[in-house]
Amino acid sequence: MSIDTLPPAGPASSSLAHNQLPRYTTQIVLVASLAVGAGLSAVFGGFSPIRFAVLSTLVFLIVNTTLSAVVEGRRKAVDKLVTALVYTAFGIALVPLISVIWSVLDNGLERFSLDFLQTSMRNVTGLNDQQALEGAAPFIGGAYHAIVGTFLITALASVISVPIGLLTSIYLVEYGRGRLARAITFFVDVMTGIPSIVAGLFAAALFAVLFGVGTRNGFAGAVALSVLMIPVVVRSSEEMLRIVPNELREAAYALGVPKWRTIVRVVVPTAISGIASGVTLAIARVVGETAPLIVTAGFTSSINTNPFSDWMMSLPAYVYSQAMRPLSGSSPQPSFDRAWAAALTLILIVMVLNLVARLIARLFAPKTGR
Amino acid sequence: MSKRIDVGDLNVYYGSFLAVEGVSMAIEPRSVTAFIGPSGCGKSTFIRTLNRMHEVIPGARVQGKVLLDGEDLYGSNVDPVTVRRQVGMVFQRPNPFPTMSIRDNVLAGMKLNSSRMSRNQANEIVERSLQGANLWNEVKDRLDKPGSGLSGGQQQRLCIARAIAIQPDVLLMDEPCSALDPISTLAIEDLIGELKQNYTIVIVTHNMQQAARVSDRTAFFNIAGTGKPGKLIEMDDTTKIFTNPSVKATEDYVSGRFG
């Protein structure tokens, strides 16, 4: 029998076919539910976004599922219900994120400017703020000193943590056997859970013992941050090193390459994209730490580029001090605006770091092209 | 260049588990020796002891002697790294280095050890090794492309080129064709036939036709049951093993009446 002659199509009600809703039913139901939700929320005590969202979602879930259950049957109805629930959960998860970004943008753009990024708070007093509010003088004072501090402290913390973290993970993956490796893994896990203020107090106490009570400088802050950063770096690089196929190590050994060269020239380069993006994300995680920096690096209104002496401002500490201790008690708004603008700067830095991490992952990834 | 291997009463352990027991054999230079036998009988374990690759697995150790032209590989001051430079290995799955180009993959043995060489020398080695692995004509125009972009069979030949680039005395192949299609397999088998002019070749294979086609001598390994150690049952000229073996178990295995 030749296969290019299909048997004639059977009757319309084949045993494989089932009733189906028209293609855009879900979308139409969604639009209708939004309308009904708006109407219902107006009826029940006036329109509000939350009431509107909750009512529309409920209406949509009920109508869409029932419609599908009646026409299409149980399995499709359950599918639609769960799909809708998943989307709802996703929407709820997005709410805090969007609201944070929105409020930071909304409040932060007030003072965010090139001038804000390029000036410090030196000699800016409450009097300036009052005059600025009265229109007698321009708004002055920025976060330059805090940005410099954040960059220096985070860079130092990375210089301390990345070698320690990377070497630890290499030990765990390539050499560690038995008790010592298990102990290190355990303590790395414990370190991951250390509250950041404890890390700060540890660094403060360490520097108090070494250099006298009350010693605060950028380096102490970097030590505190590296206590938080090391476990993250260890964990992420360990994961990345473990997924390097054993075959590559064996291939190198079989060529008469010593173990350490295999690690340096084969294993780490193969995993470098993941390691680099893991490190970048670890930096992004500690750049916004506040408590440990307040107790170790302190506050200042001046630019300090020497992390080894004197107090050093950082962006989170700047936000904290502007928000909690406004320069002018009677007219705190300019200080609040500065706090928001600094928060915006911090979010931008974290965002850029995340993008850099992705870029690094893509740039260093092993090529597969032909 | 090519050297002989003599194995004397070799036991291989993983921790306290005896994996291979009492193997003695002689592997002739400039010939192909095939290891056959059912899965789990210790062929791969044993072939790895010939260049001390089994030591990569924690807890693995051996008792007995392996002599490479009379020199004991397990002597007290022998560095496994030196051994592996003389006894190369090709694995079951092609494993070119994903971060390196085709050219760098061939030169990996030198580059990873940071040997100094001139550009001309390097070009010469790349061409000679790729010619030797019958891959030159297919890749000569894209030597700077990543090795992972090649087909499976080409990747495996690249791995062979990489192994012969450091000019070992012996080439071990652990099921080199089991991940390849019949045409690539044929290419590799032809290659083995050419390589034996210069190298001592030991090959593990599950494909008995392959063993019959490529090898001069064949060793049959077997295992009495799970948890028991693998043993060398008999070793003889390939034609004899496949036509008139002296042990019943070998005959059952090669004729497919096993188990």
Automatic annotation (TrEMBL), chain A:
Q: Name one Pfam family in it.
A: BPD_transp_1
The record places domain ABC transmembrane type-1 at 147-357
Say yes or no: keyword Cell membrane present: yes
Q: Its family?
A: Belongs to the binding-protein-dependent transport system permease family. CysTW subfamily.
Q: Tell me how this protein sits in the membrane.
A: Multi-pass membrane protein
Q: What does this protein do?
A: Part of the binding-protein-dependent transport system for phosphate; probably responsible for the translocation of the substrate across the membrane.
What CDD domains does this protein map onto? TM_PBP2 (cd06261)
Record-level GO BP terms: phosphate ion transmembrane transport
Annotated Gene Ontology cellular components are: plasma membrane
Subcellular location, record wording: Cell membrane
What protein am I looking at? Phosphate transport system permease protein PstA
What species does this protein belong to? Jiangella ureilytica
User: What PROSITE patterns is this protein classified in?
Assistant: ABC_TM1 (PS50928)
Determine the domain of life of the protein's source.
Bacteria
Report the main location listed first in the record. Answer: membrane
UniProtKB/TrEMBL annotation, chain B:
Q: Does the keyword Cell membrane apply?
A: no
Q: Where is the ABC transporter domain?
A: 5-248
The entry's keywords: ATP-binding, Nucleotide-binding, Translocase, Transport
Its Gene Ontology biological processes? Answer: phosphate ion transmembrane transport
Q: Name one GO cellular component term.
A: membrane
Q: Which domain of life is it from?
A: Bacteria
Keyword ATP-binding part of the UniProt annotation: yes
- Which GO terms of the molecular function aspect are on file? ATP binding; ATP hydrolysis activity; phosphate transmembrane transporter activity
What NCBIfam families does the record tag this protein with? Answer: 3a0107s01c2
| Protein name as it appears in the record | Phosphate ABC transporter ATP-binding protein
